[in-house]
Amino acid sequence: MLRAVVLLLISVAVGLTVGELDHGYKGYHIYEVTPKTLEQSQLLHQLSLDGYDFIKEGRLLGHSSRVIVSPAQFERFVKLVKSEQIAYTLLNENLGASIDEELALLKLQRRMNPITGKGRLSTERYYTHEEILNYIDDLAVRYPSRVFVKTVGWSYERRALKTITITNGDQRKGKKLIFVDGGFHAREWISPAAVLYIIDQLVEQFEQNADLLKDYDWIILPVVNPDGYEHTQTGTLARMWRKTRQPYGACYGADPNRNFDFHWNEEGASSSACADTYAGPTAFSEPETIVVRDLMHSLSDRGVMYLTLHSYGNYLLYPWGWTSDLPDTWEDLDEVARTGAEAIENATGTVYTYGSSTNVLYIAAGASDDYGFYAGFNVSITMELSGAGSIGFNPPVTRIDEFVTETWIGIRAMAEKIIEKY
Ligand SMILES: *[C@@H]1O[C@H](CO)[C@@H](O)[C@H](O)[C@H]1NC(C)=O
Ligand SMILES: *[C@@H]1O[C@H](CO)[C@@H](O)[C@H](O)[C@H]1NC(C)=O
Ligand SMILES: [Zn+2]
């Protein structure tokens, strides 16, 4: 019954915004494509360099990628996949309509059930940056001996970047440390949602997770790119935004995950300010990446694992991303990533692929995981969350819980492995 009412209200809300349906991803398709030969894989990668927006991309043969195809790109795309006999399936034939529905639901949830900033957050919706900050501030008030919140910097549009440090309250100094962040890429809403679930587990479910906090503290930056994250919640056209929001001529923002000063802009990044993978005019041109850099350096003497959450693709990736060479300690990295993947597959059947970024995905320099490893974290992992069943960018709100709990199973297992090894 409630569901019927909600659906009715959504239709009304969507109906009211009919004017906006005339533009903004209307008639854009999402296709799943699966390369079976190296040549097919290279052709698909070429599309990504030619301005096709891949929301999931991998290079391994037999692994699917997902790509948004605009009406203007449609003809070339279909001609290519047909002539090259690349397997493709239509997943969504009107991305604009899916986005409108998603944003209408978001608005409705916010109107019907405003967040007071007190108490636990449910996994039944996506939150604003302000709601997330209010939530961690409230945790620090409710658990003053175990939880500490600190403002570590400001975004370009002057939003506060805050970390939450979670301890077991024994006040022992100099413990080892796990650093987690989310929300690098604006449109990847499931990433901050998963980070909130980690926080909930470590703080509210402390008894069950005390082993993870005995010799380790956790420092978490829930949203690295709040300007972009907020932007994606403002309307249909903005929904697929990925970058920061600092203006560069007629375009906006750099890809924060190509902006780190480690082999910056050598490979897999763009020098064009309008591109989705724009590396920025210089390394660390973005205030948000400077904040992450400074945190990494200040934490690296006791930091053992850096974990950054993205979506989507079911991947656990470790350095390097700037070269196909592997670091000397790659077997340690591989063991941690494999443990996370196995734990998830054992628990839910979801298969995560693990390996070095360059070998599993594509070469891409200037990313935060390479920088964290270079800065001294023994283990540095990018987790690309599963997007199974999604027809838009994120899982629908009804499935957030399933994704974040699954993610936590993998993270918990990796943390246990870290604690055992280091
Ligand atoms: C990182 O690994 C090295 C080599 O195994 C070890 O000596 C060092 O203590 C580790 N760092 C931390 C913070 O545990
Ligand atoms: C997953 O299951 C296999 C087979 O039962 C077991 O050997 C392995 O240790 C499990 N891995 C994790 C991380 O739970
Ligand atoms: Zn991402």
TrEMBL record:
UniProt keyword annotations, A-Z: Carboxypeptidase, Disulfide bond, Hydrolase, Metal-binding, Metalloprotease, Protease, Signal, Zinc
Q: What InterPro entries does the database record attribute to this sequence?
A: CARBOXYPEPT_ZN_1, M14A-like_propep, M14A_act_pep, Peptidase_M14
Gene Ontology annotations of biological process type: proteolysis
- SUPFAM superfamilies tied to this protein: Protease propeptides/inhibitors, Zn-dependent exopeptidases
Annotated signal sequence is 1-19
Is Hydrolase there in the keyword field?
A: yes
Q: Family per UniProt?
A: Belongs to the peptidase M14 family.
> This chain belongs to which protein, by name?
Peptidase M14 domain-containing protein
Kindly list the cofactors needed: Zn(2+)
Q: Gene3D superfamilies from the entry?
A: Metallocarboxypeptidase-like, Zn peptidases
Per UniProt, what is one GO molecular function of this protein?
Answer: metallocarboxypeptidase activity
Source taxon at top rank:
Eukaryota
Q: Where is the Peptidase M14 domain?
A: 125-418
Annotated active site residues, numbered on this chain, are E384 (proton donor/acceptor)
Sorted alphabetically, which PANTHER family does this protein's record hold?
A: FI02848P-RELATED, PROTEASE FAMILY M14 CARBOXYPEPTIDASE A,B
Q: According to its record, what are the GO cellular component terms?
A: extracellular space
